[in-house]
Amino acid sequence: MKDESFESDIQADPTEAERLMRGLRGWIAQRINPNERFAVELLCREAVANAIEHGSRNDPSKRVRVSVALMGNEVSCLIEDEGGGFICSPADWFVQTWPGEQGRGITILGHYADRVLFEEGGRIVRFSKRIRGGIEQ
Amino acid sequence: MKGAAIYAPHGDLVVATVLKAKEDIKALIADSDGDFTIDFVDVEMIDSKGLGLLIATCNSLSAEGRRLRITHANADIVELFQTMRLDKHFLLE
Description:
The complex is a heterodimer.
Chain A: E1 5-11, H1 14-31, H2 34-55, E2 63-71, E3 74-81, H3 105-112, E4 115-119, E5 124-130
Antiparallel strand pairs in A: 1-2, 2-3, 3-5, 4-5
Helix pairs in contact in A: 1-2, 2-3
Chain B: E1 5-7, H1 18-30, E2 36-39, H2 48-63, E3 68-71, H3 75-83, E4 91-92
Parallel strand pairs in B: 1-2, 2-3, 3-4
Helix pairs in contact in B: 1-2
């Protein structure tokens, strides 16, 4: 029987995050239909990158916890870091104007997820997304 | 005339790879002229850092009167460009 959740705990480090994302890509490929895989992986990537860069300030002594679960036709994800929090301003949700090179991660979360919730001052990010076309059997 | 250049990353353009890609692109731009092409044939995923790299590349090229061409991007990546309203700044082929 397939595991319906993916759990990991990594150092707040981009190389560690990439290793995690490679594992998560395989997990997603076995459970989520091809039309939705890109969106789910992208959402997880942005939330983890945010926890490392803005939450943990790229401090590898801090940990980032990642939990992804499938419930029915919905994927839900929790990303928790040990940093000092993250203040998300209303402007972060809107598409950044050209030619700004930064600040599109939150916009991506807002566009691709159905719900996004920041808790404990931004140390915890939860999001969920309905999977159109269902879960892979 | 130096000639046009094509950069074809061997994998995704994400936070873990953008620094190396940025160095490679900078060197190729300096050693070429005309339109600059990034071939996405081996790219499955791009994140916000990768998008930032494309915007920075486009800005550098524009300052020299040059354009950024993107070829072979998959449908998910093209949709992301459209969502982020970046598609009108690149030549998508």
